[in-house]
C-alpha cells in the first residue's frame, strides 16, 4: 500500500504561525510504499444512549464504511506523544488471501475498552477494486473476496471468549468452533456476531485462492 503522511502544527499555536509552518518542507505530505500483513479497520465510537424502552442500542456499521480508510482519499488524524499527523492509505496490490483486523479494543493507562459495534458484512463478493490506485486497477484481475474464516470475541475485554466460524470448502457449509465443540451454523447468523478477525480469499468466480 501507499501511505501518505502530513505533519500538523500544534493546535494551540496562533493561526499565523501555523500558516508559516505549513510552508516548510517538514509539513508537506510525504508518501512511502509498504507491504502489509493485514488491514486494520477502525470502528466509529459506539454511542452511549438508550432507546425509549431503556434498552442499550447496539450500533452497526457497514463493512465498506470502515474499508473507506484505504480509498486513497479518506484522512485520519494520528497522535503521538509530541506530534500530530494526518494519514491516508491506498492499496496498490492485493494478495490471494486478505486478513481484516477489526479494531475493537482500545487501551489507556487504566483499562482496556471494547467497542461492541456490529459490522454488517457480506459473506461473499467483497470487491476491493475501487480501493486500488487507478494505474493498477486495469491490470488487477482478482479483486473480489469471499469469507473463509471469522473470529468472534464475546463478552468483556478482560474475561471474554472466542468463537471461530469456518467454511468447509468441499461442502460449502459453515461450522462454529469453540474449544472442542463443533456445530453447524447458518451463514446469516455469522453476520450478527462481533467479528474481530476475518480471513478472506479470492472468490470462486476468479479461481481457487492461491492459484
Automatic annotation (TrEMBL):
Pfam families: UCH. SUPFAM superfamilies: Cysteine proteinases (SSF54001). One of its GO terms (biological process) is protein deubiquitination. Its EC number is 3.4.19.12. InterPro entries: Papain-like_cys_pep_sf, Peptidase_C19_UCH, Ub_carboxyl-term_hydrolase, USP. It catalyses: Thiol-dependent hydrolysis of ester, thioester, amide, peptide and isopeptide bonds formed by the C-terminal Gly of ubiquitin (a 76-residue protein attached to proteins as an intracellular targeting signal). This is ubiquitinyl hydrolase 1.
